[in-house]
Amino acid sequence: MRVYLATTPCDMRKGFDGLAAQVQSVLKADPFSGALFVFRGKRGDYLKILAWDGSGMCLFAKRLESGRFVWPPIVEGRLQLTAAQLALLLEGIDWRRTVAAEPVRRPEMV
Questions:
Q1: How far apart are CA 60 and CA 29, in angstroms?
Q2: Fewer CB atoms inside 10 A, N or C side of the chain?
Q3: pTM of the model
Q4: Of 31, 40, 107, 101, nearest to 71 (Cα)?
Q5: Is residue 79 packed enough to be buried (19+ CB in 10 Å), middle (13-18) or exposed (0-12)?
Q6: How far is it, in rounded angstroms, from Cα 29 to Cα 27?
Q7: How far is CA 52 from its chain centroid?
Q8: Residue 63 · residue 35 · CB < 8 Å
Q9: What's the pLDDT score for residue 53?
Q10: What are the E-state strand segments in 29-77?
């Protein structure tokens, strides 16, 4: 699954249409592509995820009661995340410090 993170804070009052317009204008992507688009609030403790499931738009939101999500530096554009990094982000864990395990090498015959 493709996951795109908008790196600049977004107005969290926006709904389906406002965030879909943000995907098109700022992220230069198609909101109906089936990818997940993650938006952050100014304070960093609130996020929204916009997704197209084939029959309609879905909008998910999460606000942390204490602490903040771990965000990359604020720059223009987008950042692509893996599904595992998104899961860590949603849990409030620093997803930037995760390193994929080395691929297991197949044993060679001697």
A1: 19
A2: C
A3: 0.81
A4: 40
A5: middle
A6: 5
A7: 14
A8: no
A9: 92
A10: 36-40, 46-52, 57-63
Cα(50)–Cα(35) distance, rounded to whole angstroms? 8
Among 8, 34, 3, smallest CA distance to 22 is for 8
pLDDT at 102 over 70: no
Instruction: Summarize pLDDT for 11-70 with one digit per residue, the tens.
Output: 999 999 999 999 999 889 999 999 999 999 998 899 999 999 999 999 999 998 888 888
Contact between 37 and 50 under an 8 Å Cβ cutoff? The reply is: yes
| Structure-token pair, residue 70 | 């771990």
* Paired tokens of 64: 């942390």
The DSSP line for 20-33 is: HHHHHHTS-S-TTS
The encoded tokens of residue 37 equal 């688009």
How far is residue 104 from each of residues 84, 99, 110, measured CA to CA in Å? 19, 15, 18
CA angle 7, 42, 56 (to 5 degrees): 65
